[in-house]
Amino acid sequence: MSLRLFGAVCALFGGLTWAARWALVESGAEPGAVDATYWAGLVLLTLGVLAGSAGLVSAATAWLRALVGLCGLLLAWSVLVLAHDQADGAAVEGVAGLVAVLLWTPGFRRPAASRDPRVEDAAAR
Q1: Which of the 8 DSSP states describes residue 110?
Q2: Which end of the chain has less Cβ packing within 10 Å, N or C?
């Protein structure tokens, strides 16, 4: 499984988990279930953002992949902290989960074929 696909799967399930947590909070569910969905969603979203960010960089430079993955994670965390200051925590996390589902679902598509003119010229010969 590619790093990009792994990140998309983790982010999809993490986002759905946080959206379900939001619904649980609004319905007045047990605190144990709410806490379990919070931590499960947090772990899955963390893995998704880390893997998805690292997947943006060529595999040849492992140190750069690690740095970009960490920076993507810090960016997502800072946006979430700023949103927490403005609204209710469960609602912010629920909306963040839904946004993660919308942003990462296209990650399941197969990447388009190369449009490099050098490749097309070599194939024409």
Answers
A1: P
A2: C
Give pLDDT, residue 121: 52
For residue 16, the Cα-to-chain-centroid distance in whole angstroms is: 11
For the chain, which residues score pLDDT lower than 70?
107-125
From the list 46, 43, 44, 62, the residue with the least C-alpha distance to 54 is 62
Angle (CA) 79-7-108 rounded to 5° is 115
CB 108 within 8 A of CB 11: no
Quote the pTM value: 0.78
Token digits for 20?
């379900």
Name the residue with tokens 């960016």.
75
Indicate the SS3 state at residue 93.
helix
Give the Cα separation of 46 and 117 in Å (integer).
38
